[in-house]
Amino acid sequence: MATHADPFGPQMPLGISLAPGATFEAFFVGPNRFAVEVLRGMAEGTGERQAFLASEAGLGKSHLLQATCRRAGDAGARCAWLPLDGEAGAHAGILEGLEALDLIALDALDAVVGDAAWERGLFGLINAARASGARLLFAAGAVPAELPLALPDLASRLTWGPVLQLAPLDETEKREALTARAGVLGLELPDAVADYLLRHFPRDLAGQLERLDTLDRASLASGRRLTVPFVKEVLARAR
């Protein structure tokens, strides 16, 4: 399947693969419907050719970039998702030739801005992608105008498509997101457990959804239902 592909084989560059649960269906849209619709259009090749996604940590930027690549790959597109705060960010040379793909999603752009080689590489990739017709999707913790860019013209090129800012969920929406994820997993989520998770991990929605996956596996393995003591025990072991 092309979702995880570079031009040379079934794996993405550097062996990077998509998280199994990173789909549009698993993302709680809440106040971010417009941003999600833009990314769906990019994935399906019917919308924008470039977009920039910005938000504070934990709101789902990486999830959405991977979901975009997965949806595009399911339609036969050649895609790459590169989280630049990891191994992919070790050398700007990884950008060379990516414009031959159909969709390139560069995550955690904050990790490389300010580096002259990376900024030149990004500048060149945007120009090359515009010429080749490749779709480009960027994500960072701030909008381009607020990033510490050293190359003046790079900021303007990063805004050649819409700049989308994810809004945080309010308390009710976070509870709805947890309940929806539990429903997908077939997991009963008592109010007391939801209260505990929201009280102890109030801002980290992406982490909350991962914790639910961990709790689901632990519940299935032990045959125990979710209770606050059980949740404390499982999450203590998972640290």
Summarize the structure.
This protein is an alpha/beta fold. The protein contains eight helices and five strands.
Which features does this protein show?
239 residues, alpha/beta, five-stranded parallel beta sheet, 8 helices, 10% strand
Structure characterization notes:
With 239 residues, this protein is an alpha/beta fold. Helix content is 44%, strand content 10%. The chain is built from 8 helices and 5 strands; from the N terminus they run H-E-H-E-E-H-E-H-E-H-H-H-H. It has a 5-stranded parallel β-sheet with strand order 2-3-4-1-5, with helices on both faces. Strand 3, helix 3 and strand 4 form a beta-alpha-beta unit. It starts with 32 loop residues before the first helix and ends with a helix. The N terminus is likely disordered.
Query: Treating each run of at least 4 consecutive H or I residues as one helix, how many helices?
Result: 8
Estimated structural class: alpha/beta
| Shape label | elongated
The main pleated sheet reads as: 5 strands, parallel
What is the H/E order? HEHEEHEHEHHHH
**Beta-strand content:** 5-15%
Q: How large is the radius of gyration? A: 19 Å
Q: Which segments are poorly predicted (pLDDT under 50) over 5 or more consecutive residues? A: 1-14
Distance between the termini: 34 Å
Q: For the residues shown, what is the average pLDDT?
A: 89
Helix-residue proportion: 40-55%
Main sheet strand line-up: 2-3-4-1-5
